[in-house]
Structures are given as structure tokens and as C-alpha cells.
Amino acid sequence: MILKIVTAGDPILRAPSKPVSAGKIRQPEIQSLIDLMRETMREAPGVGLAAPQIGRSLQLAVIEDREETLRELPPAQLAERERKPVPFHVIVNPKLKLESAPELEFYEGCLSLPGLLALTPRARQVTVECLDHRGEPRIIRASGWYARILQHEIDHLHGALYIDRMRSRSLTSVDNYMRHWKDKSVAQAQKLLE
Ligand code: ZN
Known about the structure:
Layout: H1 22-25, H2 28-43, E1 48-50, E2 60-65, H3 67-71, H4 75-80, E3 86-98, E4 104-108, E5 116-122, E6 125-131, E7 137-143, H5 144-157, E8 172-173, H6 174-181, H7 186-192
Antiparallel strand pairs: 1-2, 2-3, 3-6, 4-5, 5-8, 6-7
The structure holds zinc ion.
Residues 110-112, 152, 156 line the site of zinc ion.
């Protein structure tokens, strides 16, 4: 079963989510929610999905960057974005620490803002303290695209969207991104959008 993804304008995307206790995570209700969110994320397709995006105000997100997806992208793009496969996992009640300034810009999108992309500055490196799908404490040290995914998903749990952080003049439809921006370097895009 695929869950409905809520889009911008739904107040739940602007509300802070509630923490989930370790005991609650282990119960069938949250376990089946995790399964449904994984299925919904893969179907979309996306590399992350936060509970508010499917209408649940919980500090829980699923993340996965699949090898199959990466195989279809140009190696130069993967290298520039430091994008590598990330196995499926769950973050609950995450505490985010930026290990570098949020100044690395790439085009970013969101399943709750379909058809749009914008240059969005993010930290290259982060540390996240959270609980996993079994309610066990976990510390994640991430860099590159994975660090970007974590920052994006954790923003959702605090009622924030990438459009709050984007270089607003870079906002583009996916169609126009493919037509005008895909083959330009980020530095070129930044200069044209000054
Ligand atoms: Zn999103």
C-alpha cells in the first residue's frame, strides 16, 4: 500500500513533530508505518521521507539512496555531489549537528513540492544522534549527499522546507532544469542567477 504524500500548504508540514519513545517504536503500529513509508518512498521515488509528509506528526524519517538509482546518473555528477549508496534506515528523534558551514549548494527537490528544484546550501558534514528502527541509540556521521538528505529530512521534523533555505532566484521547474541548468556547473548557475 502506498501512502498519500501531502504537499506544500498543508499545515502539518509547518508544525514541529512529536518525539516517539523507544518502547513505541518497537510496537506494531510504528513498525508497519515504517514499512509503508519505505514502500511509499521507493514508489515516489525519493531518497528520504519524513512522517509529516504522510500526515503524521512524528519525529521519524526513512532514508535510502539505492545503487540502482545511482547507476543511471552520470559518474561526474555523483562525484561532484559526493553521492554514494545509502542502505535503507530509519531515524527517530534526531539531534543534528552541522560539522561545517551550510554553504555547499546543489539543486535540491522535495516530494512535497513536486516538479520544483532550487539551489540549496547545506553543510558538507553532519553528526546525527537518533534512535533506529528498533529504538536503539545510534550516532551517524555523514558527508556529501547523505549529509544533505539528513539535513533535509530533519528540517521536515521541525516544520522547515528547503524553500526556507534555498537561493530563491534559482527556483526552477524540473522541465526547465533539464532544459537550461542540468549541464551547467553550480558555479555557472550561481553567476547567472546573481
Ligand atoms: Zn522533503
